[in-house]
Specification:
By secondary structure, the protein is mainly alpha-helical. 67% of the residues lie in helices and 5% in strands.
């Protein structure tokens, strides 16, 4: 560990990464970003490998992965491609739903729907959701 650079406190790591300390602590407690070591009094210290791991965690979170999936990827239980495929399917379903909502709204705008038409559209939406 001598040539890996200095050990960072949780505050230093948070500042460098641009996250609140409580987020780093939460990820650490969740096992996603364990500290490299602990100093006196139990202070968490992070090395360069932890910084690289944090960057991967951030990237995975930005892609929409939950902490459970992030942990599975980091632990080697599943590949990033496998998790991405599941999330891609979920996004495709959301896109289809959004397109349907958009189509309904476009009809309403084009027809300048009155109160009676809005009541029918609302009822149709409730029937679909049931």
């Amino acid at each position: 560990m001598e040539d890996e650079g200095p050990l960072l406190s949780i505050g230093e790591l948070a500042r460098r990464a641009g996250f609140p300390v409580r987020t780093i602590r939460f990820w650490s407690d969740a096992g996603v970003l364990p500290p490299a070591t602990r100093a006196g009094g139990g202070r968490r210290l992070y090395d360069a490998a932890c910084v690289a791991r944090l960057e991967l965690v951030v990237t995975l979170r930005e892609l929409g992965l939950g902490l459970a999936d992030v942990r599975r990827v980091l632990d080697g239980q599943v590949s990033i491609a496998e998790v991405a495929a599941v999330h891609l399917e979920a996004l495709d379903a959301q896109i289809r739903a959004l397109r349907l909502h958009r189509a309904v709204l476009a009809v309403v705008v084009r027809r300048a729907a009155g109160k009676e038409e809005m009541t029918l559209i609302k009822k149709a939406g409730q029937d679909v959701g049931s």
